[in-house]
């Protein structure tokens, strides 16, 4: 059957309209990146790739400009064990409770449940946890916070996805070492396990990874999720201003990881950070301040690595310096 002429004309006109209608502006698809900016991004990601090639394991690097929100990453959405980097979340939850009036940082709590008379202030425990990565102090704080689940809930309430807290430090380390603990102290259980199993002693002595542990989703974070937590803290979305300053100044005094994120930054560069270490794993996460006051978050994790601590540390150091130079010297960006 022949189509009426007016319907044919209408169909043609409609089709032409699709071609003749004005195209959406570039801003409809987001800010346009200059050739220089695209080149700078490509160069940064190429540096990340070359650093990852130094390890025979998996490397995750994520950086985020805290002014514009710009992110660049390699394996930024891959889950990695957090190890002691989770202690940032522990401190955040305790300080949030202080902000709410649920506790005081001068409250005294036992450092070791087996020695209830050995009391320390919450302030002292946070200091020990963040500046020296003390595990006993951490687990005393986890207990005072109400357990790992309450810390996880606090992180989730900030809108951070891809980071989960499931254990205190002792039980995290039991899983990392492949130990089924008996009754008694952490140190006694570890000593007994190492004495009974020569393979555990060898893995510990040779700094070899426990692959099964690295595949366990518990107590993990993606690099981007860790940056999201750091950003929420720095931008005042997690804590009151005084508590934000308190936490970040404490992290600036971190004594561990001198060969990691801070190692290749210019002399005097400010960095508030927290490290984490396990066999075959290394991590360092923090906030770096540029000379003009701008800040960026950086999280670097290395897992399943057999090359050794020096290689892992070098990857973290070079990644932080590459990010520092990128944010300092790359062309000006437009915010989304």
UniProtKB/TrEMBL annotation:
What InterPro entries is this protein classified in?
Beta-lactam/transpept-like (IPR012338), Beta-lactam_cat (IPR045155), Beta-lactam_class-A (IPR000871), Beta-lactam_class-A_AS (IPR023650)
Q: TM spans, by residue?
A: none
Q: Which PROSITE patterns match?
A: BETA_LACTAMASE_A
Q: What class of enzyme is it?
A: hydrolase
Set out the biological process GO terms recorded for this chain's protein. beta-lactam antibiotic catabolic process; response to antibiotic
- Repeat as UniProt keyword: no
Keywords associated with the record: Antibiotic resistance, Hydrolase, Signal
| E.C. designation(s) | 3.5.2.6
User: One MF term in GO for this entry?
Assistant: beta-lactamase activity
- Renumbered to this chain, the signal peptide range is 1-28
Which top-rank group of organisms is this from?
A: Bacteria
Question: Residue limits of the Beta-lactamase class A catalytic domain?
Answer: 60-302
Q: Which family would the database say this protein is a member of?
A: Belongs to the class-A beta-lactamase family.
**Protein name according to UniProt:** Beta-lactamase
Query: What species is given as this protein's source?
Result: Sphingobium cloacae
């Amino acid at each position: 059957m022949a189509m009426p002429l007016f319907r044919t004309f209408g169909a043609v006109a409609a089709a032409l309209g699709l071609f003749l209608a004005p195209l959406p502006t570039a801003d409809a698809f987001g800010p346009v990146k200059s050739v220089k900016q695209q080149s700078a991004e490509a160069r940064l990601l190429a540096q990340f790739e070359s650093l990852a090639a130094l390890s025979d394991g998996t490397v995750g690097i994520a950086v985020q400009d805290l002014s514009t929100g710009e992110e660049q990453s390699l394996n930024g959405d891959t889950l990695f064990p957090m190890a002691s980097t989770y202690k940032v979340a522990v401190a955040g939850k305790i300080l949030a409770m202080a902000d709410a009036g649920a506790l005081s940082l001068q409250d005294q709590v036992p450092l070791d449940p087996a020695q209830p008379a050995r009391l320390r202030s919450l302030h002292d425990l946070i200091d020990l946890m963040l500046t020296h990565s003390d595990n006993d102090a951490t687990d005393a704080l986890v207990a005072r916070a109400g357990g790992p689940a309450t810390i996880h809930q606090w992180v989730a309430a900030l809108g951070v996805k891809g980071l989960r807290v499931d254990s205190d430090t002792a039980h995290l380390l039991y899983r990392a070492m492949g130990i089924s603990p008996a009754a008694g102290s952490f140190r006694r259980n570890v000593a007994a396990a190492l004495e009974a199993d020569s393979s555990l002693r060898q893995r510990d002595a040779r700094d070899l990874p426990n692959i099964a542990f690295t595949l366990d989703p518990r107590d993990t974070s993606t690099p981007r999720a860790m940056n999201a937590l750091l950003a929420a803290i720095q931008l005042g979305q997690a804590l009151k201003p005084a508590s934000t300053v308190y936490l970040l100044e404490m992290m600036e005094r971190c004594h561990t990881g001198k060969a990691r994120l801070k190692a290749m930054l210019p002399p005097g560069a400010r960095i508030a950070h927290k490290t984490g270490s396990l066999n075959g794993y290394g991590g360092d996460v923090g906030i770096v301040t540029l000379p003009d006051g701008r800040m960026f978050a950086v999280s670097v994790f290395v897992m399943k690595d057999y090359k050794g601590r020096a290689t892992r540390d070098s990857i973290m150091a070079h990644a932080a310096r590459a990010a520092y130079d990128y944010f300092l010297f790359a062309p000006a960006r437009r915010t989304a």
